[in-house]
Amino acid sequence: MKKLLPVFLVVIIAVLFSMNFNKAEKNSAEKNDFQSGFLSYLGTTEEKFQTGFDNFRKFAAEHEELSSDKFVNSLVEKRRIIHFYNNLMGLMMDLKAGKLDEIILPELVGKYLLKNNNSFQPSASTGILFSGVSFGFKADNIELQKEFNAALAEMKTDGTLKKFAEIYITNSGSREPEPIRPVKIKNAPEIKIAVTGDMPPIDMFAGDGQPAGYNTAVLSELGKRLKKNIKFINTDAGGRSAALMSGRADAVFWYRSTQSNIKGNDPLDKIFKDVPEGVILSLPYYSWQNEMIILKKR
Phi then psi for 3, rounded to 5 degrees? Predict the structure, then answer.
């Protein structure tokens, strides 16, 4: 027994050392990791998104041509732990409370938040993505998709979409433009559109809780051109798919159509493309290139 005692002591010391080392390693990892918040992607899970983000981080570290992008450099320096949120308010509240280190949003949404909230500050932006918003339909509703595509193509060609974007997004200034309410057409069929309010100034709710922003102008014009009544259905970003699949809505706003600007490789396309199974998309009716990291002001 006495001969075995030194052996036991060595084993115990080794175990304690290993526990302390692992704890220190974990604390170090937690210190270097960033808690990062995104509005929910319905075309993937949080776990798959995390894997894709980690893979892109490795890809970016191996490609020096991306080193001039501050956003990408930030991703390489610190690993992001991804958290999905069903609405913009939840993202903002957890960033303010310190539960998140950052949130990542389209730059136009980030600029809107910074203009209207002095609790946040910008960190970095990137132009390596080309993104747009579309309307989503159930896969078997091809006819409605075709109708929307034809009307949206006309609105792009005749400059209507550009005019609305200038009024509601580019030149909106400090005062929000008045929302355009869809005109009611007697005896016309109704289209129920789910809007989220989670992407100002494109899709938002006014102080009275009614839909506002760029979408109200686009949808009102769509109603006129399709000779159909538009009815707004309120939901949040995380409830879009359920609203569509249950039949509560015929079409849903705020599906990302994302492509990478990195030539010769498309690692970001697989991460950021957000098209859930059973959903088809309209043509994008507003596009942008920049995504922004937003921090809590210190």
Answer: -70, -30
pLDDT tens digit sequence for 228-244? 999 999 999 999 999 99
Cβ atoms of 52 and 260 within 8 Å: the answer is no
Residue reference for tokens 């604390």: 27
Nearest to 122 by CA among 135, 136, 134, 108: 108
- Whole-angstrom CA distances from 155 to 158, 283, 284 are 5, 11, 12
Higher pLDDT, 221 or 171: 221
| Rounded-to-integer distance, Cα 102 and Cα 30, Å | 15
Euclidean distance between CA atoms 107 and 112, whole angstroms: 8
Domains of the chain with CATH codes: 26-128 (3.40.190), 130-287 (3.40.190.10)
- Picking from 65, 60, 101, 62, the residue whose alpha carbon sits closest to that of residue 80 is 101
CA-wise closest residue to 135 among 243, 270, 267: 243
Q: Cis peptide before 267, with omega less than 30 degrees from 0?
A: no
Determine the average pLDDT of the residues in 26-55.
82
What's the whole-model pTM score? Answer: 0.84
Burial class of 48 by CB neighbour count within 10 A (0 to 12, 13 to 18, 19+): middle
d(CA 157, CA 162): 9
Q: Does residue 157 sit in helix, strand or coil? A: helix
Specify whether the CB–CB gap between 212 and 176 falls below 8 A. yes
Locate 57 and state its tokens.
Answer: 């981080």
Report yes or no: 53 and 80 within 8 Å, Cβ to Cβ: yes
Query: Distance (Å, rounded) from C-alpha 183 to C-alpha 251?
Result: 18
Return d(Cα 278, Cα 265) in angstroms, integer. Answer: 27
Closest CA to 165 of 116, 208, 202, 117: 202
